[in-house]
């Protein structure tokens, strides 16, 4: 891709990971165009929502019921609200980044501005892999433990055991790992099934959609909390999601990680070529990764 000055970049960011089939996948684009002729948003749920929900329940071990959203923050925040309602507890144990919701950014000094301290006090951060948290989970009354399950399946199993003993819900934020760890997610790859799972990013190859899935005994309480959005059932994104998953299932792309990315690291991702092909390096500020909102053309 090229910026307004004619500098050429290799896109290693992939729009922040949603384009798992690449930009402008013809099959997904055709599914969007086809649905466009039938309508975008409706007053009631559509058959497409049912089809996507059934597909997710078939693929993801923890999925027995499904609620859709538009981005990752929608579903991670819904998962925390649901966990608090179900357990009748307030504290949340959190490791990693889970969106821009008050509950998630409260522990980050760089993001806490605008978040009431009373809200911030309800989220307790911990470092993934820290074994001291098991005793805390058993001693304190936490509503949920929220993690990104990217590595260390044994640690996840110990977390799950601590949660079961304390009546705490285990929430997997699989917004990055699903479906890159396989269509059953990291939970399928590692054999650890959480109570609730959040997915987004690559589900629709760039269209805005997310899903909160989970075990029925918890998800039934979704009817008792406030969670709604005018565009949650928007059909273009749902059609794109169904088509993307079908293509992944058919083996058109390998969605599971196959290496450490060493080949990419051998290159210099900070380098780019100028308008006439000359390579520029660290001294050329314009050659660094473009900031959000930069005008880039594909």
Quick recap:
This protein has 298 residues and is of the alpha/beta class.
Q: Could you please describe the fold and organization of this structure?
A:
The protein has helices at about 25-35, 45-60, 70-85, 100-105, 115-120, 135-140, 155-165, 185-190, 215-220, 235-250, 260-265, and strands at about 1-5, 65-70, 90-95, 125, 140-145, 170-175, 195-200, 210-215, 270-275, 280, 295. It is of the alpha/beta class and about 300 residues long. It folds into two domains: about 1-20 and about 255-298, no CATH class; about 25-250, Aspartate Aminotransferase, domain 2. The strands form three sheets. It has a seven-stranded mixed sheet, sandwiched between helices. The chain has a two-stranded antiparallel sheet with strand order 1-11. Helix 1 (about 25-35) runs antiparallel to helix 10 (about 235-250). The longest helix is centred in the first third of the chain and has 16 residues, at about 70-85. About 35% of the residues are buried. Residues about 250-298 have low confidence and may be disordered.
Q: Identify the CATH architecture of the largest domain.
A: 3-Layer(aba) Sandwich
The tally of beta strands, per DSSP, is 11
Instruction: Indicate the proportion of strand residues.
Output: 5-15%
> What is the global morphology?
globular
Q: Any idea what the radius of gyration is?
A: 21 Å
- The neighbouring-strand order within the major sheet is 2-8-7-6-5-3-4
Structural class: alpha/beta
CATH class (first level) name of the largest domain? Alpha Beta
Kindly state the mean pLDDT as a whole number?
86
Provide the low-confidence segments as ranges: 252-298
The ordered H/E elements are EHHEHEHHEHEHEHEEHHHEEE
Give the helix proportion (percent range).
25-40%
Give the termini distance in whole angstroms: 5 Å
CATH level-3 fold name of the largest domain? Aspartate Aminotransferase, domain 2
Largest sheet: 7 strands, mixed
Domain count: 2
The total of helices stands at 11
What's the CATH H-level homologous superfamily of the largest domain?
Answer: Type I PLP-dependent aspartate aminotransferase-like (Major domain)
């Amino acid at each position: 891709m090229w910026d307004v000055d004619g500098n050429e970049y290799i896109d290693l960011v992939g729009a922040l990971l949603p384009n798992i089939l690449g930009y402008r996948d013809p099959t997904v684009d055709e599914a969007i165009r086809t649905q466009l002729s039938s309508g975008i948003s409706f007053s009631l749920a559509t058959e497409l929502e049912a089809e996507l929900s059934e597909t997710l329940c078939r693929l993801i071990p923890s999925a027995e019921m499904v609620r859709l959203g538009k981005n990752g923050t929608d579903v991670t925040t819904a998962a925390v609200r649901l966990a608090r309602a179900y357990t009748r507890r307030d504290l949340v144990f959190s490791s990693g980044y889970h969106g821009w919701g008050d509950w998630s950014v409260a522990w980050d000094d760089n993001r806490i501005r605008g978040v009431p301290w009373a809200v911030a006090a309800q989220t307790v951060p911990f470092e993934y892999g820290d074994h001291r948290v098991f005793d805390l989970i058993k001693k304190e009354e936490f509503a949920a433990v929220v993690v990104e399950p990217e590595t260390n399946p044994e640690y996840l199993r110990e977390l799950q055991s601590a949660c079961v003993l304390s009546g705490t819900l285990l929430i997997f934020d699989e917004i990055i790992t699903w479906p890159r760890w396989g269509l059953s997610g990291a939970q399928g790859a590692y054999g650890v099934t959480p109570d609730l799972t959040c997915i987004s990013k690559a589900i629709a190859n760039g269209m805005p959609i997310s899903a909160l899935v989970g075990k029925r005994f918890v998800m039934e309480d979704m009817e008792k909390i406030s969670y709604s959005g005018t565009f949650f059932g928007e059909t273009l994104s749902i059609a794109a999601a169904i088509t993307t998953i079908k293509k992944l299932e058919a083996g058109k792309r390998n969605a599971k990680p196959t290496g450490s990315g060493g080949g990419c690291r051998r290159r210099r991702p900070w380098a780019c070529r100028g308008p006439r092909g000359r390579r520029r390096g660290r001294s050329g500020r314009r050659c660094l990764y473009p900031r959000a909102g930069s005008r880039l053309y594909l």
